[in-house]
Amino acid sequence: MSVKFATPSAELDYEVEAALAFHDDDAKATVATLLSDIKHLRFQLALAQSAMSYGMTRGWSPKFDREA
Length: 68
Known about the structure:
mainly alpha, 2 helices, 57% helix, Dehydrogenase
């Protein structure tokens, strides 16, 4: 089963504008927040991966990077 990561252009534009507006249009602050969120979520994923048994997920294991 393939998962698509593409978001409709209008929705993506809205999300980008909302993220920038949250940081008063400061692009560096927006990117810094997003990178910090990625770091946090990767750590949470690593914790989940170490806590889950192979059998519990029936062979599935979380991945850190998207599959194309």
